Amino acid sequence: TLHRLLKRLAGGLASAENAWMQQAVFGGRDLVSGSHWRRVLPRCHFWLDYAGVPQPRADGTLSYAIGSIDAADAEAMQRAVYSIPAYVEASSLMLILAPNAQHADQADRTCDLVSWRRRGWCRVE
Question: What does pTM read for this prediction?
Answer without folding.
Answer: 0.58
